[in-house]
Write a structure and sequence with these properties.
Elements (H helix, E strand, L loop, with lengths): L4 H9 L30 E3 L6 E3 L3 E2 L8 H14 L3 E3 L7 H9 L7 E6 L4 H14 L5 E9 L2 H9 L4 H10 L3 E8 L2 H10 L4 E5 L2 H7 L3 H9 L3 E5 L3 E3 L13 E2 L3 H12 L5 E2 L5 H10 L8 H12 L11
Parallel strand pairs: 3-4, 4-5, 5-6, 6-7, 7-8, 8-9, 9-12
Antiparallel strand pairs: 1-2, 10-11
């Protein structure tokens, strides 16, 4: 009897992922070794069934997009020293891979590096994977993701079907080029379909207070991911709404939360949803704010939740429905 797509992919992709470095207990950074930089303590969480310890605030590659190489190296070095160990990038982020690769190379063994492909076919994904490895000057990715799945037929079924991108990703995992497999999505329908078709290690999805209070945008996806033991990577934690006036931040397509105390509450809300890590806006000043606020984030109080709900009611949210 012919196996279904999920069974076929599980059979083809079965392999044990190798162990990666661990910085000790949660919330404690790596100790300095002779000849190495000292890495500060920073709050960490387990990335689902991968059992990897990752900083609750990530470094998004867009932070160094269009940056001078010297500045990119400085910002990345500061991030690693501070204890940020989750780095995320994609080929679609301008020249971010080219800037992040050299800057991250001295610290590659200290970080968890995630990349993505927006290709849905086997050949296209293979070409993009190889190019990303080369640009980022690394021999493997700790996490490789199907990027921006939105349509069940065009994205999910195409990528997971015969001749799809997943065949490349599974082959790369067998070869040691990829350790874990995930996806990013802005559509609940696509995210849920993907999780039902294949046993992903991680899900990247918008987890935002304004979208939640508007329509519970993230609820169903997080519940399914939690049920499967997946690591969850939160997008748009510091998003507020669609731009209502002049665009003040060139690296944000949405209006971000840039007032410090509100940003703390927004991040606290997102982290309180049980996500493993949050990726802040790509604007450097906002990313730095998020890194500073991370250790201050705790369970929101009832007063803070009420305030966030009131603010959300006045926002023109960036995602207004849990499906689509």
């Amino acid at each position: 009897m012919e196996c279904g797509r999920r069974e076929f992919l599980k059979a083809v992709g079965a392999s044990a992922a190798g162990a990666f470095f661990s910085c000790g207990v949660l919330g404690v950074g790596c100790k300095e070794r002779p000849g190495e930089i000292a890495v500060e303590a920073y709050p960490k969480r387990i990335l689902g069934k991968t059992d990897e310890q990752v900083s609750i605030i990530a470094f998004g590659g867009i932070v160094v997009m269009d940056a001078e190489p010297e500045h990119a190296a400085k910002v990345v070095g500061e991030a690693v020293t501070r204890g940020i160990n989750y780095f995320d990038v994609a080929p679609t982020y301008g020249d971010a891979e080219l800037k992040l690769g050299p800057a991250l190379k001295p610290y590659r063994d200290k970080v968890f590096l995630a990349c993505k492909t927006q290709k849905r076919d086997k050949a296209g994904a293979e070409k993009e994977l190889r190019e990303s490895l080369n640009r980022l000057q690394t021999d493997h990715f700790d996490l490789y993701q199907l990027h921006a799945i939105a349509d069940v037929e065009k994205d999910v079924k195409a990528a997971l079907g015969k001749g799809g991108a997943m065949e490349t990703i599974l082959a790369a995992r067998r070869q040691g080029l990829v350790r874990y497999i995930g996806f990013s999505a802005h559509s609940a329908e696509a995210a849920l379909a993907a999780m039902r078709e294949f046993e992903f290690d991680t899900a990247m999805y918008p987890v935002n207070f304004a979208c939640h209070y508007n329509s519970g945008f993230e609820t169903e996806v997080l519940a399914e991911a939690r049920g499967q033991g997946m690591g969850t990577i939160a997008l748009k934690a510091m998003a507020k709404q669609r731009w209502q006036g002049p665009k003040r931040y060139k690296k944000c397509w949405y209006e971000p939360v840039d007032e410090r105390e509100l940003a703390r509450k927004a991040l606290s809300w997102t982290l309180a949803q049980g996500v493993s890590v949050a990726i802040p806006p790509g604007e450097e000043s906002l990313w730095r704010m998020a890194v500073e606020l991370g250790p201050e984030c705790g369970e929101p109080t009832s007063v803070e939740l009420s305030e966030l709900e009131q603010i959300a009611a006045e926002c023109k949210v960036i995602f207004s429905s849990g499906r689509g």
